[in-house]
Input
Amino acid sequence: MCLRFRFVAVYAGTVRVCTLRRVIALIYLLAFTGGFVIMSVELLGGRVLAPWFGSDIYVWGSIITVFMVSLAAGYLLGGRWSMHHPSLQRFGLLFLVAGVILFPLVSYAEPTMAWIFERVEDPRYGSLLAATALFMAPTIVLGMISPYSVRLLVDQIATSGRIAGQLYFVATLGSALGTLLTSFYLVAWFEVQTILNGMTTILLTMFALATAVARREAARANTARSSQQGEVGMSS
Output
């Protein structure tokens, strides 16, 4: 027998758990994908900056610092944004925005680094500025994914810790897989532009999938609500 609970990812109301298992699985998939793309892009950052600033430890220190600060900002913004009318469709918009920002990165990367290289003599600060200019915006958006996914699934305080732990576990697994695949295989098989195009495609696919599922579940909810109203009207 299906249990019932309120689920904010589709609409405010009481719905059957058995009808929302696919939606819940999709949210975990989206969190996993966000973690995967974050680490893949972070590793590619070293390849992007290397022709201008080398690959010394200060370059990687700059990249890691920018990603950590950007993720911190993303977690904060994602948590705040999730408090205003959270929905699966709005969640999918994060993937659209991240994909749109990420797609042209390689195109403007070279002129950006050239401009910084000519004006900043110290390569430590040059690499830090370059990493900030290139990677901060997409990483902030990607960082908003995890807290927003927590908000979609948490409806009761008693289960919030368990759900948050599961979501961050899944997102971290995605990050680990993104690190291994990118460092072991993708950089050996493809150019940086091709890999970034692939990451953009993945993000846009997740956006399309989230939007399609959200619309389908909303249509089902409206149909069920209309049916219930009809039965109430007939009984009265």
